Amino acid sequence: MSAHGTRALIALAVFGLAAPAIAADPPPAPAKPEKKICRREEVIGSIIPAHVCLTRAEWNQLNSYYAERDKGFLLRRGEARGTLKPMDPQ
Q1: What's the whole-number mean pLDDT along residues 69-85?
Q2: CB–CB of 87/75 below 8 Å?
Q3: What does pTM read for this prediction?
């Protein structure tokens, strides 16, 4: 057998042995998209509510944002009225 024929035979043997190993690997499962949670939200100036659909993580992020915003508003409101008393450090 010639050198070229030997190389072809070796290449065929290597790829022939590797092919079953490559084919045996299962494809990765596609990631499931997060389930959307839909809520009715009131729209100022309209009698028709809007449907807002977000994932649980997005709802948590939005709720945290509104809680921080409202806390700051209430603190400023209390300071303006003089009803907010500083906490005594203990």
Answers
A1: 72
A2: no
A3: 0.47
Domain positions in the chain: 35-84
Q: State the pairing for strand pair 50-55/36-41.
A: antiparallel
Q: Is 54 exposed, middle or buried (0-12, 13-18, 19+ CB in 10 A)?
A: middle
Cβ contacts of 44 within 8 Å, gap of 6 or more:
none
Neighbour count for residue 55 (Cβ, 10 Å):
13
Cα separation, 87 vs 43, whole angstroms? 38
Handedness of CA 52, 61, 35, 37 (dihedral sign): negative
